[in-house]
């Protein structure tokens, strides 16, 4: 396989996925925030909350449409650039994607129209139900996609069929309740909630700095701070759960994140800072926190976290075991139905390591003809490039804790300081708007780049997954996607900025009239309290 095709296919999918994920977190979070605001409107009947709902829903709608456009393009690539992957694992991977398209996407696409155009057609409660269905549909879309992705990280509920040469599902419920997928789902949607909360917080802070739409801004900050703070704690907790799952199912990824070259005595320390040197197999200038990684990664003081060198040695053993599985597989294929019990037993004994034999396809057409040097090299190929994963993880974590600090501050001021926000805090809220997107992209980079060299961990190497396309085909389509997605991103930014500057333009007269009457009632109430008794 031409490695240029593999790298270009990876680059194209990474580019489209990262572009798509510029829209996804805001869609997930704003859908819930809009539903919360409308719930308050239905409960209180105050027009200001209806105006808030319509304003933030407008920004949600812009983001939703462009997110759908980029998502559809991304899914087409499975058939276009990754045809062998689609053939090999389509029996499992296709099921959650089909459910996502038929159930979740159609649900949110159907009700999003009613949400925008049904204000005067539906009752208050009926419209609220529609808004919540849009929010639930958006999150259901994430659920099924992350179930598919979680299976790629931890392929459970499936086995290889030597007759069809494909992975086939054995238990849908194991795929559905895959512990990696469930932790990834909650972690991802919580990150989306934080993203939307920071976005609402920052835009509202900008309004307050400009002295515009103050009542909407204050209430929006209060909602975003409370919702975002709770979500940011969820991100941290489920991030820890994902790390624990990696210690069970993706040990090499965890070792690469830590740049842990050699196995340390339990409990392992956490490397706060360092410069990984993959050639020398060491981390220079390492600053470590004793015991921290052992506690986070194993939740014990006695279990070891294996280092990269030990895991490479284990991978070499699995490559050799995989060669026995591959040889048995070729005998089964050659027998054409006249398979002996010995051949079946030999294959079943080593079948879990078949994917490791496929790593040798990068060097030789028939893995059984591989040299000792090629076997050693295949084992070393299981180590991803360490320094990008090491640093992307640490920047992501640092940003995550900064969100807790920012949201926590605004939560305290909103609830205990009379919503008197100092200008420095409002400026900080505006500056921090892009940070959740940076953290989300780094999180996805860590998860997906850290899985290399596997498309499906331990089952199918990335180098075998691609379609048989020319380098020219991939270069042309990559350039086309970059151009198309850049145009979409510019459109998105232009529309968002336009409507943010325009502000809440709907229900203005009704809301302002209610606010005047509300302020008059408050003033009358204050006068009654301060009037001396006769």
UniProtKB/TrEMBL annotation:
One of its GO terms (cellular component) is cytochrome complex. GO terms for biological process: aerobic electron transport chain. Its main location: membrane. The keyword Heme applies. The keyword Iron applies. One of its GO terms (molecular function) is electron transfer activity. It is found in: Cell inner membrane. It holds the Pfam family Cyt_bd_oxida_I. Keywords: Cell inner membrane, Cell membrane, Electron transport, Heme, Iron, Membrane, Metal-binding, Transmembrane, Transmembrane helix, Transport. The chain crosses the membrane at residues 20-43, 55-72, 92-117, 129-152, 185-209, 221-239, 389-412, 424-447, 467-491. It is a multi-pass membrane protein. Belongs to the cytochrome ubiquinol oxidase subunit 1 family. This is Cytochrome bd-I ubiquinol oxidase subunit CydA. It comes from Paenirhodobacter ferrireducens.
């Amino acid at each position: 396989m031409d490695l240029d095709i593999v790298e270009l296919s990876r680059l194209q999918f990474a580019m489209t996925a990262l572009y798509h994920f510029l829209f996804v977190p805001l869609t997930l979070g704003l859908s819930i925030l809009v539903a919360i605001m409308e719930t308050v409107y239905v409960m209180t009947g105050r027009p200001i909350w209806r105006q808030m709902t319509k304003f933030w829903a407008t920004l949600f709608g812009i983001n939703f449409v462009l997110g759908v456009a980029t998502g559809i393009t991304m899914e087409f690539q499975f058939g276009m650039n990754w045809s062998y992957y689609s053939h090999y694992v389509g029996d499992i991977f296709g099921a959650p994607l089909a459910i996502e398209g038929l159930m979740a996407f159609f649900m949110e696409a159907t009700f999003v129209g009613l949400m925008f155009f049904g204000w005067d057609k539906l009752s208050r409660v009926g419209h609220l139900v529609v808004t919540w269905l849009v929010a639930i549909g958006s999150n259901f879309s994430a659920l099924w996609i992350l179930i598919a992705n979680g299976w790629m990280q931890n392929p459970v509920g499936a086995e290889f069929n030597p007759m069809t040469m494909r992975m086939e599902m054995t238990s849908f419920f194991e795929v559905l309740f895959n512990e990696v997928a469930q932790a990834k789902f909650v972690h991802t949607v919580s990150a989306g909630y934080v993203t939307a909360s920071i976005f609402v917080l920052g835009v509202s802070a900008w309004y307050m700095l400009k002295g515009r739409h103050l009542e909407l801004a204050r209430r929006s900050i209060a909602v975003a701070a409370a919702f975002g703070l709770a979500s940011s704690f969820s991100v941290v907790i489920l991030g820890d759960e994902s790390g624990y799952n990696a210690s069970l199912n993706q040990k090499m990824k965890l070792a690469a994140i830590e740049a842990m070259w050699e196995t340390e005595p339990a409990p392992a320390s956490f490397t706060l800072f360092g410069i990984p040197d993959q050639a020398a197999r060491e981390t220079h200038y390492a600053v470590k926190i004793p015991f921290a990684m052992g506690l986070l990664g194993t939740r014990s003081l006695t279990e070891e976290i294996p280092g990269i060198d030990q895991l490479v040695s284990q991978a070499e053993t699995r490559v050799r075991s995989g060669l026995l599985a591959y040889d048995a597989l070729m005998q089964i294929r050659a027998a054409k139905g006249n398979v002996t019990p010995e051949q079946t037993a030999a294959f079943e004994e080593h079948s879990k390591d078949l994917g490791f034999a496929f790593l040798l396809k990068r060097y030789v057409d028939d893995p059984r003809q591989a040299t000792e040097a090629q076997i050693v090299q295949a084992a070393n190929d299981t180590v991803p490039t360490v320094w990008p994963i090491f640093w992307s993880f640490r920047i992501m974590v640092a940003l995550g804790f900064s969100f807790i600090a920012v949201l926590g501050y605004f939560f305290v001021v909103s609830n205990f300081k009379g919503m008197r926000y100092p200008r420095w805090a409002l400026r900080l809220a505006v500056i921090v708007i892009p940070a959740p997107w940076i953290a989300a992209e780094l999180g996805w980079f860590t998860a997906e780049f850290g899985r290399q060299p596997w498309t499906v961990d331990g089952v199918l190497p990335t180098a075998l997954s691609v379609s048989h396309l020319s380098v020219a085909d991939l270069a042309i389509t990559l350039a086309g996607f970059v151009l198309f997605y850049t145009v979409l991103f510019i459109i998105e930014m232009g529309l968002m900025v336009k409507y943010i500057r325009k502000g809440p333009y709907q229900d203005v007269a009704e809301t302002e009239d209610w606010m005047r009457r509300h302020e008059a009632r408050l003033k009358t109430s204050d006068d009654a309290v301060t009037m001396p008794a006769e």
